[in-house]
Write the structure tokens for this entry.
Amino acid sequence: MHYLDHAATTPVSRETAEVMVRVMTEEYGNPSAQYELGRRAKTLVDQCRKTVAGALGCRPEQFTFTSCGTEGDNWAIRAALHQNRRVGRHIVTTAVEHSAVLRCVKHLEQEGYSVTYVKPDSAGRISTGQIAAALREDTALVSVMLVNNETGVRFPVEEIGGLLKDRAALLHTDAVQGFLKVPFTAEKLGADYITISAHKIGGPKGIGGQYAGGKAKNILPVLYGGGQESGLRPGTEATAQMAGFAKAVELRIGNREEVARRLADCRAYAVERLAEIEGLVFVGAGDAPHILSISLPGYPSQNIVGELGEQGIYISAGSACHRGKASHVLTAMGLDKRTAAGTVRVSFGPETVREDIDALVKALGEHKRKRFPML
């Protein structure tokens, strides 16, 4: 097997899985219980929060566990708009956000909000100037992702944070693809809300997190109930997932420089080898070390993904959330139809080796030789 779809999800290490099993089978107490087993679970939750918050560069009390990045994105948007309900009903975002942001704001349009969708250039980049030009007096929220999940382009969130520093508008960033992949801290990023997820860094699915700081005040709870997570996200804590998230963070932090070097080397080697395929096009000006978007114009991406998958080579046709639909990212970039239709995403992880990339290059070359391009 050659797994090259780490931007979709990542394998969970044996160490992380063992920690989760131990918590589920030995430290299974309810953190709200007053006896010893419950107190140990509460201590575990506090320690997990401290670990993840430390990697994010914030105080533990500024970090709340969520079920996933989608929940975090939706929650941040709703909470920011609630806080700024007297500022106005205008939202600025980009046309290339994850569907967790785009579908949320499109629904908000039906509730009477006005949304400005900033489009990228042909390389997938968004500038601070474009965001500045989109701002209005009634802008309540700006939501701009840190790293695009299809192209790997890093957006200038720090500059946008500086732009909004003295304005009422709050800044949210979906940092799911950036957390522990590109260097940043919550303080330096300047966003009021930062969304992250465990399963993109070797942690389990079903657990994510939300930073709320800066200008974020009186945060709107995502639910109402028993008061867990400081009353912001009540419900019995998912202690095993939290422990898995924290362990995955520990493993990445402890090996951060090596992981960064390995990802950069894999991407550079992939660019070198893929350039050998005649007619192959590199899509976007990706900055992130773990994502590479490429196209075989005229060769449908779904056919490529399907045929390579049968050979045990796993890549994707853009975001794993598309399920065969045309990519809104490529459409917003203005790619011609043949290039867009032939675009696939290759993404790397710490486990990726050159043999994985060699297998990909060979399979793509064979696919091109034996298939006729569609006109």
